[in-house]
Write a structure and sequence with these properties.
This protein has one domain: OB fold (Dihydrolipoamide Acetyltransferase, E2P). Helices cover 4% and strands 41% of the residues. With 150 residues, it is mainly β. The longest helix is centred in the middle third of the chain and has 6 residues. About 5% of the residues have low confidence.
């Protein structure tokens, strides 16, 4: 039986996503967006978190959605996992990578703009809607059955 490699993580971005152009093995170039997200390992406040490196490739819906992300944004991502081994101070470690297939945007951190900057410029008051003439309705009288006399 073949295994299924799909995982879903929800968390917050640790930094603003990086937009890059890379050269593929066949010599073609493509764009991608990469970001690291912090995922809590439990619902407790003091629970440790781990980092997932997420890659969104050009041409996918997740690539388009990733353009709206910034540091602190909440996201939920789904896709196949891979692991990237590395060594820190002589001890082997492994990083988690996710090739993003689905990206759901959550809350975004507030901009540094004040609320006054977000108020749209004054617009003229809309014209009142014209009242349609009232329709005449007919009421139907209930038909009473004729009583048969014997």
């Amino acid at each position: 039986m073949r295994g299924i490699n799909t995982a879903t993580f929800g968390g917050n971005l640790g930094a603003t996503p990086e937009h890059r152009t890379v050269t593929l093995k066949d010599g073609n170039t493509t764009e991608l967006i990469e970001f690291n997200m912090y995922v809590d390992s439990s619902t407790r406040k003091d629970a440790p978190s781990f980092i997932v490196q997420v890659t969104c490739w050009a041409g996918s819906a997740s690539f388009n959605a990733a353009g709206y992300l910034k540091k602190g944004s909440e996201v939920t991502v789904t896709g196949p996992l891979s692991f990237s081994p590395y060594i820190v101070d002589g001890s082997p470690r492994s990083g988690v990578k996710l090739n993003c297939v689905t990206l759901c945007l959550g809350r975004s951190p507030r901009d540094e703009q004040s609320a006054d900057d977000l108020v749209p410029a004054e617009q003229p008051a809309p014209e009142p809607l014209a009242q349609a003439p009232a329709k005449k309705t007919r009421s139907r009288k209930a038909k009473t059955p004729a009583l048969a006399t014997v």
